[in-house]
Amino acid sequence: MINTIKKYIKQHVSGWAVQDRGVVEAYDIWAENYDAQPGNLMLDFDAILFAKLMRNIELANKVVADIGCGTGRHWPQIFDQSPLVLTGFDVSPGMLNQLKQKYPEANTHVITDNYFTEIEDHVYDVILSTLTVAHIENIEEALEAWCRILKQKGEIIITDFHPDALASGGKRTFRHKNIHIAVENYVHKIDTIKDILLSKGFYIFAEEEKRVDETVKHYYQQQNALHVYDKFKDFPIIYGLHFRRA
């Protein structure tokens, strides 16, 4: 009973009901408005980190997989480098439908498990995955599959919500009608991701992170969420990793 009361207070005292949803259901709902999010701190931080990490990678004439591609937020920047082939993977058909509206000829696959069984070994030169890893429950299983479909001298770029923020109560939420929807997340330590990929012959070429500080306080002010800013001030909120396999 106490836990039920606590949950009710957490969900309703703020004036907005909060509902936890699975990844597929949440992103299918979010898809329609995902590209129209001015002032979204995570998306803005992700754009900054992704641009930094992309400075040290060459995609021209490469076969590229974007795992967790969503609506193709980063595809203009990827296409600027003239990849030979770009394929988008996502668990959400709704997000892929939005991507297809922008890129009707896009190669896309709906992810149904961690194994990518329909993909042969050593197909891709580069795997890009942004704001996705924490949505995967069995991260070791997934990363092993990524290694399998990647060529021997392949590269991986990952960005995501920092596990320290998730472990401290941070959530990926969005508004839909009169509710806040929180997307299901799993906390994977950065060292866990590093250890898995290092054991597969990769090395860390670059590592980045962004923290909540005074420069982003206005994001929280605009959302009337200064209490969240105070809670997470000085916390790392997003990280980026660039792996290469020798």
TrEMBL record:
UniProt key word Methyltransferase: yes
The Methyltransferase type domain, residue ranges: 66-158
Keywords: Methyltransferase, Transferase
InterPro entries reported for this sequence: Methyltransf_11, SAM-dependent_MTases_sf
GO biological process, one term: methylation
Tagged with keyword Transferase: yes
Pfam families assigned to the protein according to its UniProt record, in alphabetical order: Methyltransf_11
A GO term for molecular function: S-adenosylmethionine-dependent methyltransferase activity
PANTHER family per record: TRANS-ACONITATE 2-METHYLTRANSFERASE-RELATED
Name of the molecule in the record: Methyltransferase family protein
